[in-house]
């Protein structure tokens, strides 16, 4: 039997097991993207609700409102290794159903029964955050499993749903808040988003054992030398023993902080920069900025994911993070300029969103696709640590400087520059040295 016929036979396994529709990897990718779109508002539309929350809970300082965002990110990210383990071992559908119910219930409870900020911590932070994390790791890892030949592009498209999905709904959500208030808006949109995520859960499947894409010879997309992929499939315990894991973790925290700071505090930053009440091109500035930054965020993940399949993850990270450091610094130079506010923050997300495609792809490259859910879940938990610095921490630090976010953004710019340096001077020699030549460690399935 020829290699081509073996490949075709293995490819047909998916459609034999799941049917011609569900067994199609592009259908799997689209379902994952849709699920990511509907949970994007939990992170990227949060800033639209903060003015209403602050008005309702007037006796609470802004830093405690910002803590809702930090808790959401914490519970989205830190349980991910556990969620990823269950996704890899119990299957994606069961976990996705649990996640869809949690995200729907989280916003519904916030909008109907929350009577204090502490309630928001539980409903928004714990319940919705955990549900969003389950859906996120399920969809990204599923894309990595179905697209071993184009991991960067597949991870970029999937994470783009999360990064840019809010661009489709920011304006409608802002309009609904203006009409019925932040609470009822959150309840209505929570139900809508939960139902759509549940529908996607009924479609998603992992590829069957032995499956490979038709015509794939085991190498990444051309040029093959740009991306080095390990021959090993590391378990979570083996991954924790590798220095590459800790390098990726530190780089993720450093590169993630600035963009998260902008995401959770955009409305408050607009007030500090004296542009919050302005209109740009006929639109209210905060909903417009949130829409454009979401679109840039989505495009960033696709663009840089695609580029990394050709340039390599290391070079792509170094370039993108270096430019991001410069743009984050520019945020401190735009006081009183509404147009500059919109444009600079759009650029912040154009050079920030790629972290979610690059780190998932490089995790698959280094540690293998078999345990991608749990391994990337461990790397992605770095976002939780970054959220403490970017949400609650940045708000507290700003309060020490009369509300100004200049110092937090200076720190974020330095962090991003350090991450770029680590990508070029440390990660690059590692993944272009021995990783691509390794055999699977004892106990791993190659």
**Could you please say which CATH topology applies here?**
Growth Hormone, Chain: A
How many strand segments? 2
Task: Give me the number of helical elements.
Answer: 20
Domain module tally: 1
In helices, the fraction of residues equals: over 70%
Uncertain segments are 1-10, 439-446
Q: Please tell me what the overall shape is.
A: globular
Q: What's the order of the H and E elements?
A: HHHHHHHHHHHHHEEHHHHHHH
Explain the layout of strands and helices.
Elements: H1 3-18, H2 25-39, H3 41-44, H4 46-56, H5 62-77, H6 80-90, H7 92-112, H8 117-146, H9 151-164, H10 170-180, H11 182-201, H12 236-239, H13 243-272, E1 279-280, E2 283-284, H14 285-311, H15 313-330, H16 338-350, H17 355-367, H18 372-380, H19 382-400, H20 406-431
Antiparallel strand pairs: 1-2
Helix pairs in contact: 2-8, 2-9, 2-11, 4-5, 4-13, 5-8, 5-19, 6-7, 6-8, 6-18, 7-8, 7-11, 8-9, 8-18, 9-14, 9-17, 10-11, 13-16, 13-17, 13-19, 13-20, 14-15, 14-16, 14-17, 15-16, 15-20, 17-18
Short description:
It is built from 20 helices and two strands.
Keywords:
446 residues; mainly alpha; Growth Hormone, Chain: A; two-stranded antiparallel sheet; 2 strands; 1% strand; globular; disordered N terminus
Walk me through the structure.
The protein is mostly helical and 446 residues long. It has one domain: Growth Hormone, Chain: A, CATH 1.20.1250. 74% of the residues lie in helices and 1% in strands. The protein contains 20 helices and 2 strands. It has helices spanning 3-18, 25-39, 41-44, 46-56, 62-77, 80-90, 92-112, 117-146, 151-164, 170-180, 182-201, 236-239, 243-272, 285-311, 313-330, 338-350, 355-367, 372-380, 382-400, 406-431; strands at 279-280, 283-284. A two-stranded antiparallel sheet has the order 1-2. Strand 1 (279-280) and strand 2 (283-284) form a beta hairpin. Helix 6 crosses helix 8 and helix 14 runs parallel beside helix 17 (355-367). The radius of gyration is 21 Å and the shape is globular. The model is unreliable at 1-10 and 439-446 (pLDDT under 50).
């Amino acid at each position: 039997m020829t290699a081509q016929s073996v490949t075709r036979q293995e490819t047909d396994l998916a459609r034999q097991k799941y049917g011609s529709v569900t067994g199609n990897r592009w259908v799997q990718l689209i379902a994952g993207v849709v699920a990511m779109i509907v949970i994007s508002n939990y992170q990227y539309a949060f800033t639209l609700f903060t003015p209403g929350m602050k008005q309702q809970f007037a006796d609470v300082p802004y830093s405690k409102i910002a803590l809702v965002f930090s808790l959401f990110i914490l519970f989205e990210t830190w349980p991910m290794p556990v969620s990823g383990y269950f996704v890899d071992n119990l299957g994606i559908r069961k976990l996705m159903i649990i996640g869809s119910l949690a995200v729907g219930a989280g916003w519904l409870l916030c909008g109907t029964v929350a009577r204090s900020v502490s309630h928001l911590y539980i409903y928004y932070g714990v319940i919705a955050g955990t549900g969003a994390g389950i859906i996120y790791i399920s969809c990204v890892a599923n894309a990595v499993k179905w697209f071993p030949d184009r991991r960067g592009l597949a991870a970029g498209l999937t994470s783009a749903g999360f990064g840019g999905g809010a661009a489709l709904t920011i304006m409608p959500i802002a309009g609904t808040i203006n009409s019925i208030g932040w609470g009822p808006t959150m309840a209505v949109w929570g139900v809508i988003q939960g139902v759509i995520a549940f529908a996607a859960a009924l479609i998603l499947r992992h590829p069957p054992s032995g499956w490979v894409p038709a015509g794939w010879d085991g190498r990444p997309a051309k040029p093959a030398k740009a991306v080095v992929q390990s021959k090993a499939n590391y378990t979570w315990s083996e991954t924790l023993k590798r220095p590459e894991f800790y390098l990726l973790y530190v780089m993720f925290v450093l590169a993630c902080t600035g963009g998260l700071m902008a995401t959770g505090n955009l409305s408050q930053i607009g007030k500090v920069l004296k542009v919050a009440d302005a209109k740009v091109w006929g639109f209210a500035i905060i909903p417009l900025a949130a829409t454009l930054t979401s679109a840039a965020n989505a495009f960033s993940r696709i663009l840089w994911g695609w580029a990394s399949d050709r340039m390599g993850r290391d070079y792509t990270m170094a370039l993108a993070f270096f430019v991001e450091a410069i743009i984050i610094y520019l945020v401190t130079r735009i006081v009183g300029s509404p147009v500059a506010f919109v444009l600079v923050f759009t650029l912040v997300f154009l050079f920030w969103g790629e972290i979610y495609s690059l780190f998932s792809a490089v995790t698959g490259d280094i540690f293998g696709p078999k345990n991608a859910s749990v391994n990337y879940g461990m790397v992605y938990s770095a976002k939780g640590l970054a959220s403490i610095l970017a949400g609650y921490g940045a708000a507290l630090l700003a309060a020490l400087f009369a509300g100004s976010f200049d110092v937090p953004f200076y720190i974020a710019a330095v962090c991003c520059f350090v991450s770029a340096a680590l990508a070029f001077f440390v990660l690059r020699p590692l993944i272009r040295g021995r990783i691509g030549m390794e055999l699977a460690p004892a106990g791993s399935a190659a």
